[in-house]
Design a protein that fits this description.
Number of strands: 17
Structural class: mainly beta
Distance between the termini: 58 Å
Number of domains: 1
Radius of gyration: 18 Å
Order of helices and strands: EEEEEEEEEEEEEEEEHE
Shape: elongated
Number of helices: 1
Helix content: under 10%
Length: 184
């Protein structure tokens, strides 16, 4: 039997992923299949120009029995393990300048994330990091390395423990905030 669900993070100006339960193929020696979708909210975090995640505008935090992964595919309805081709570790942040911020070398890019404490029971998120930015005309880009994901000792090993985890994380969220600050 396989149990699956997901955590969704939509990139863009700012991203909020509610952890409705982000789990791919879970298999126990019990019988029942269950899926649950999560809710996604996008919030703007740039005043001048535009700021987007250009290469993976939609991605997911997927908790699979084999590990926790950032993925480009929604595994909530899949009854299979996460494919290596669907895993990501980075995204590209792209700022396009406005009339007020035509000199993009004066723009500072920043990515931060926060998470609800319920997540800490099951998954540890390491530090993410933003690489050096490159300016080209009115566009500035930088690669962000996503936080590493590691299960804690509370990783479920039974269907009952899995259900407990789903309940505990039902309203938990991870929020990525993308900022472009124009020098005064």
């Amino acid at each position: 039997m396989k149990i699956s669900s997901k955590i969704t993070i939509i990139g863009g100006i700012g991203a909020l992923a509610l952890i409705g339960t982000g789990f791919a193929a879970w298999q126990f020696n019990e019988s029942k299949t269950e899926t649950q979708d999560s809710n996604v909210i996008i919030t703007p975090e740039v005043k001048d120009g535009s700021l987007v995640i250009s290469d993976h505008p939609t991605f997911y935090l997927t908790l699979d029995q084999d590990g926790a992964f950032w993925t480009t595919v929604d595994y909530s309805a899949k009854e299979e393990a996460v494919a290596d081709a669907d895993k990501i570790t980075t995204f590209e942040l792209k700022y396009t300048g406005s009339a007020k911020a035509q000199n993009v070398s004066d723009v500072t890019l920043e990515v931060t994330f926060t998470k609800d404490s319920a997540i800490d029971t099951y998954v540890t998120l390491g530090a993410g990091s933003l690489g050096d930015a490159t300016a080209n005309g009115n566009v500035k880009t930088a690669t962000y390395t996503l936080p590493t994901l590691t299960y804690t000792s509370s990783k479920p090993t039974t269907e009952a423990a899995y259900k407990t985890m789903k309940t505990a994380l039902a309203s938990a969220k991870v929020t990525f905030t993308l900022k472009a600050t124009v020098a005064a």
